[in-house]
Amino acid sequence: MRPEDVLPTYDRVARGYDASRNRTLFERRWLDRMLNFAPGRRVLDLGCGSGRPIATYLADRRCRITGVDGAPSMIALFRQNVPGAKAVRADMRGLDLEERFDAILTWDSFFHLSPGDQRAMFPVFAAHAGPRAVLMITTGHVAAEPIGRVEGEPVYHASLAPQDYADLMSAHGFEVLDYRPQDPACAGHTVWLARARPVQG
Length: 201
Known about the structure:
The protein has helices at residues 6-20, 28-37, 54-60, 72-81, 115-127, 162-171; strands at 42-46, 64-69, 86-89, 101-106, 129-139, 147-150, 153-156, 174-183, 189-196. With 201 residues, the chain is an alpha/beta fold. It has one domain: Vaccinia Virus protein VP39 (Rossmann fold), CATH 3.40.50. The strands form two sheets. A seven-stranded mixed sheet has the order 3-2-1-4-5-9-8, with helices on both faces. It has a two-stranded antiparallel sheet with strand order 6-7. Helix 1 packs parallel to helix 4 (72-81). The longest helix is centred in the first third of the chain and has 15 residues, at 6-20. The mean pLDDT is 96. InterPro entries: Methyltransf_25, SAM-dependent_MTases_sf. It holds the Pfam family Methyltransf_25.
């Protein structure tokens, strides 16, 4: 199982994944915190998947969502499930939408990239961050490259060391607001919440 196998795997299992995805919205507290810190409601959802339940929750809160996913079947489901959102079929790596957002979210998607590709995403985050934009990502809690499963199929994951993420955020203009490794209140997810530093005049 390699990083380049991730998108074809999600493309194959998209409908089953959408049907079985946990919709209890255990992510709600973090999503609400993201919106509370964000200066507006323009949200970039990277690795948006089928849009349920996260993008639909954000849409209910009057967010203007741009969903990006590289799996054709996933972005087709996103268009169906979140009809008011903008849907972009694209790989998040090297993304350049020529647009800036109030919040950038990559929930359970960024960690499917290789360590090198994860490092290369931080300039992408910075390029799409508007003034005082919020960035929220989920990662692993230790440096590792485990293989998980989605709809019975193996799928690649990777994580850098926490200090590496903190250093990358700082180097690309983000200040960490909160970091919770294996948050027990969020189904064990490791969550980073950061904000773009003000531009020095």
